[in-house]
Design a protein that fits this description.
- The protein is mainly beta.
- Helices cover about 10% and strands about 40% of the residues.
- Strands 1, 2, 7, 8, 17, 18, 19, 20 and 21 form a 9-stranded mixed beta sheet that branches. Strands 9-10-11-12-16-15-14-13 form an 8-stranded antiparallel beta sheet.
């Protein structure tokens, strides 16, 4: 069944954030990639407890979504939907992120594997540093490595080779997680001879946040120049009923959604008031983190509505997405018994 919006509503998003995509350069340098906040319209949902098959659970924190709109755009859009809402999943898994505690012994083991040739020092607050033939920083939240090797003038590996070099380096360094997913090249700079490979978890695949992820910077001949690991084990804890997709669409119609529009090529001035028509033709489920950094954190589902934006005074069409937290307000998970292979 193809669903077309019965009415077209002009929605004005004042200071609604454009989604800030993961900045590989900032991540590789160890700085925060985006400021996160809780979503004010988030439905309440329940998280799995130690007895995953039980019906009594605690509430999940609302999902985190980026809140940066550096260009200061506002949107005055007519929105319509042309998508098969009946094909959208009605339930989805929720995952807990579990981090391995680190200590100076673990930092020293990593430094020895990386052949840094120096002793680890305790910097306090659970952070450790090693400076020698390269540099290593280790904490519960981040492992960061900088090679001291000179970057040559040789040819950069192609994408497939760069991914293979990155994965092999993680394996030989003892940093390869068992649940690591496929890698992809997200940046290639010939001038500085660098290819950045990004790895995410094997499950779930579509994660909006930059955590958990691993970025490996590969140079000529496959040498690893830098690596940044913001990782946690991803453990599926339960399956949850989702907010009906029609209800999610109603939130977009009323302006209660986070909007991302790829407008870098449109030549707009900062602070522009963008007027036009957004037609959403695809609905999918992605994942966002929830919970405070350093505390108990989860990956929970988010609706992603994708389509095309045509502006009144600008030629062409542009990709637009709207994000709505997907968990239903039922407070009752489906339970692990609904998962394949679980009795």
């Amino acid at each position: 069944m193809i669903v077309m919006a019965a009415r077209r509503v002009s929605v004005r998003w004042w200071a609604v954030p454009i989604l800030l995509l993961f900045s590989v350069g900032a991540f590789a340098a160890g700085s925060s990639t985006a400021a996160y906040t809780t979503v004010p319209i988030s439905p309440t949902a329940a998280a799995g407890n130690d007895d995953a098959g039980g019906e009594v659970t605690v509430e999940l924190p609302p999902p985190d979504l980026p809140t940066s709109n550096e260009q200061g755009y506002t949107f005055d859009l007519d929105v319509s939907l042309n998508a098969n809402l009946d094909a959208v999943d009605t339930e989805a898994a929720v995952y807990e992120l579990r981090r391995e505690a680190v200590n100076i012994k673990r930092a020293q083991e990593l430094a020895d594997r990386l052949q840094i040739g120096a002793q680890a020092s305790d910097r306090g607050d659970g952070t450790f540093e090693v400076n020698g033939d390269g540099q290593l920083f280790v904490s519960n939240e981040l492992i960061q490595y900088f090679s001291s090797a000179a970057v040559g003038d040789g040819s950069l590996p192609d994408d497939e080779q760069a991914v293979a070099f990155g994965r092999d380096w993680l394996r030989t360094s003892g940093l390869l997680p068992p649940d690591l997913g496929d890698g992809r090249v997200v940046s290639r700079v010939e001038e500085t001879k660098r290819v950045i490979v990004l790895f995410g978890p094997a499950e779930p695949e579509d994660v909006l946040a930059a955590y958990p992820s691993i970025a490996v910077t590969v140079g000529p001949e496959g040498i690893v120049i830098e690596a940044s690991l913001r990782w946690a084990s991803v453990v599926r804890i339960d399956v949850y009923q989702l907010m009906p997709s029609r209800q999610a669409w109603q939130l977009i119609e009323s302006g209660q959604a986070y909007v991302e529009a790829e407008l870098s090529s449109a030549g707009l001035e900062p602070g522009a008031d963008i007027k036009g028509r957004a037609t959403f033709s695809d609905v999918s489920i992605a994942y966002s983190t929830s919970g405070p950094p350093g505390g108990k954190q989860y990956l929970q589902p988010v609706y992603v509505f994708e389509g095309k934006l045509k502006m009144d005074d600008v030629d062409g069409s542009y990709v637009v997405r709207a994000y709505v937290p997907a968990l239903n307000n039922s407070g009752a998970p489906v339970g692990l018994s609904g998962l394949p292979g679980v009795a």
